[in-house]
Amino acid sequence: MTTRNKSSSAQAATKGSGEPHFETLAITTPAPFVFHVELNRPTKLNAFNRQMWIEIKDCFEHLAINPDCRSIVISGSGKHFTAGIDLTSMMNLGQELADVDDYARKGVIVERLIKLYQDSISSLERCPKPVIAAVHRGCIGAGVDLITAADIRYSSQDAFFQVKEVDIGMAADVGSLQRLPRVIGNQSLVRELCYTGRRFDAAEAEHCGLLSRVFPDKDSMITAAVALAEVIATKSPIAIQTTKESLVYSQEHTNQEGLDHIRIINKLNLQSEDLAQAVAAQLTKDEKPVFAKL
Length: 294
Ligand SMILES: CCC/C=C/C=C/C(=O)SCCNC(=O)CCNC(=O)[C@H](O)C(C)(C)COP(=O)(O)OP(=O)(O)OC[C@H]1O[C@@H](n2cnc3c(N)ncnc32)[C@H](O)[C@@H]1OP(=O)(O)O
Fold this sequence. Notes:
Blueprint: E1 13-14, E2 20-21, E3 25-31, E4 34-39, H1 50-65, E5 71-76, H2 87-98, H3 103-126, E6 131-135, E7 138-140, H4 142-148, E8 152-156, E9 160-162, H5 176-184, H6 187-196, E10 200-201, H7 202-207, E11 213-215, H8 218-234, H9 237-251, H10 255-269, H11 273-284
Helix pairs in contact: 1-3, 4-5, 9-10
């Protein structure tokens, strides 16, 4: 994958070509300007170990500035989308903390770790390219955090979801409690799911608005997710990236602040060659205007 700068993480090795290579993620380009990121620890049910948290952040920070990337599909390899945080790595953290005597210093270690994990999940939302999550079978704990930071969610019929953090004795702290209420817009249901860790299936997830579409199986879901990503990738990258920026900004701001924000951006963007080109294409019924890389 072409990038303008190198990974900040020592974990993301770099191939000879300058393309980053990840141990826990598999990256492919199934269509022009479309990237497919797969969680790729299938023998561990794609459980999030420390390396995976780091690599997700690195990957999306790379894709954010890669001019060859305009939209992204994220899915999981193997039996499940993800089993959530790797429980063995949680045990290792316990051991690491046991080696430190001072509580303030233990606290700093944990705080830095949570910040890293929060930034990992938020890297999907911060990435200006739309992210489509494609979920099959289990999407547990950190998986729900991850997909609620995506723009669009599809699943196969066999998918099931769990905000399972309470079952491992913790409050979710990397995004589900902040994003899930906004995504599904039903505080009563969110609280029920978060207080109980109840498993819910694809039909319920679609009904409550977590998913926009459900497919009979994983293959048809991935095909549809890539097709959607392809459609997005044909549009002006200026228009798409600004649309995402405005949608994300508006989630946390008043209508007026959102309008002020987009007005300031569009006073530049309405002068873009993309706009002139897209308007001309509409008038001449040219279905495939070609936009410059961004
Ligand atoms: C600062 C922290 C921020 C982040 C917090 C995130 C929190 C969370 O993610 S909370 C959720 C944690 N995950 C779980 O509790 C998942 C528990 N596992 C399951 O519910 C099931 O295993 C699952 C539905 C994922 C799969 O079921 P299936 O029947 O297909 O497989 P199993 O026979 O149950 O499991 C196969 C082996 O995988 C091991 N395993 C499962 N999940 C994890 C995990 N999260 N981490 C590590 N290992 C896991 C399971 O123990 C089996 O191992 P073995 O018996 O040795 O074959």
